[in-house]
Amino acid sequence: MRRSIRGLAACAALAAGAAHATVAVHDATGRTVTLAHPAARIVALSPHAVELLYAAGAGARVVAAVDYSDFPPEAARLPRVGGVMGFSLEALVRQRPELVVAWRDGLGVRDEARLRALGIPLYISRPLKLDDVAAEIAALGRLAGSAATADAAAARYRARLAGLRQRYAGRAPVSVFYQVSAAPIFTVSDTSFVGQMVESCGGRNVFGKLPLPAPQVSVETVLVARPQVMLANDAATLAAWSRWKTLPAVAAGTRYVLPGDLVGRPGPRLVDGMGAVCAALEKARGRLGLTPR
Length: 293
Fold this sequence. Notes:
Layout: H1 2-16, E1 23-26, E2 32-35, E3 42-44, H2 47-55, E4 62-64, E5 82-83, E6 86-87, H3 89-94, E7 99-103, H4 109-117, E8 122-125, H5 132-144, H6 147-168, E9 174-179, E10 185-186, H7 193-200, E11 203-205, E12 216-217, H8 219-225, E13 229-232, H9 235-239, H10 248-252, E14 255-257, H11 260-264, H12 270-288
Helix pairs in contact: 5-6, 6-12, 7-12
GO biological process, one term: cellular response to iron ion
Pfam families: Peripla_BP_2
InterPro entries: ABC_Transporter_SBP, ABC_transptr_periplasmic_BD, Vit_B12_bind_prot
């Protein structure tokens, strides 16, 4: 089995060696990714990476992905090499990739070492900040030979982001709790892109100062924080707080469900997710009797 995997990897390396113009970019870890020529066969190991690649104009070069890669719609038809529990190295190598794009938090140390040992070029993605999305779109466009399309997409994203920031600058602040999961309770800090959305929309994240991007909290700490607004990706999560009638967000009716893929997937649609966050906070201001400054 190991010999067959190495044989397939060698074929991919030979294909990549049919050089044209060398391209090089830095990935999210600061590591330089160098290709002998733009990648013609790309495997994406996370749904957000698929969206970044399609936005970069490289959709036709993506030959495989993982479960839940469902946007744009044509991505749902891509062969799968894995899912949330990992990927099959043999299935990946069978696709003869000239580039693999992986999510930093979803790629184990052992799997990364195996990919590098086989000589498969690897781009590590980790858009932790809102502005990182545009930078990664541009970088992936260079690796795929679609820089002009990628640069245009990155510019559109930046322009929409700037427009939202300008529109909601100076709004009356409201305290916000964003709940990622119900049991255990995970939230976001200001170091995450969701936390930055809340801040850009005029919200004050009640757990914003915690050091981790997605910290775990308790029911008691939420009750002590007394958020004016509660946000989550499903109604059941928010409904569970109904027993605490004096919690400001419960008493005021300012609990809002957000579209999970838009808010939680760090790709080009993140700006749409930010629009949803800003709209929710604006509704909350209305219910709380607050007006724009």
